[in-house]
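Hi team, as promised in this morning's meeting, here are the two structures we talked about. I've kept the exact order from the run log so nobody has to guess. The first one is mostly here for context; it's the second one we should focus on when we meet again. Sequence first, then the predicted structure tokens.
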Amino acid sequence: MSQMSTGFSLFIVGWSILLVGVMGVGGYFMFRKFLKSMPKSDGKSDLDWQDYYIDQTRSLWTEEGLTLLNELVEPVPQLFRDVARRSIAAKIGQLALEEGANAITIDLIVKGYIVATPKRDHKWLIAHLQNKQIDYTRFEHYLNAEG
């Protein structure tokens, strides 16, 4: 009888640890989203700016550009892919507006991807660009920049 209750106690403790861990991970991502929705000194949040850049540059995207963006976010897990696509597209849109571009070019997509993603994702970008035979040498200073 005591053997069964010890096993059950261990099951309850293990289940509790798993539950707390999963809730902690979910809470972390919810808190990050909350921080992004907080208004900055200009009265707009990061998410407001993201929506602004996407809306302002929606007509500048070509089918080829959207395809490349979708290919670049492919390694992101499906659950986070839409969020990654929106944040990268917003950064590309911001760069396009700052440069006064008439269209979203491959150069803008590569530059925006480099600026919007952490350095660990740049290996995938380089491999993908080499596979598609796209010259990325003019962006190497972005790839090698810290932060």
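And here is the second protein, the one for discussion:
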Amino acid sequence: MPAYALAHLRASSPHPDIITYLERIQATLDPFHGRFVIHGGALEVAEGEWPGSAVLIEFPDMEQGRAWYASPAYQDILPLRTDHVEGDVILVEGVGPDYDPVERAARLRAEDAGYTA
């Protein structure tokens, strides 16, 4: 099942370290089969607030995502970003191609038989 590293990056100050980070990040992803899905493109807020930009990196599974984030190669370049960009990063498991939200709703109803809509 795919997994994703999702970053919500807010305050960014232009700095040469950010360029170096961008130049080096792909080499840290390659051994873990990571690929950018979203990388700071145009964004339209449909609900709530989203100050900043979004980055989404896909991995084959959660194990690969965790291994990438903890890898010495990525940890080596991480301060190049975190010293100059405020943000949050999560690793999250995706859903498979056969995912059905109706099935999830049925499981939730079964788990909480006292729930009323």
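Starting points for discussion:
The helical segments are 16-29, 62-70, 72-82, 101-111.
The mean pLDDT is 93.
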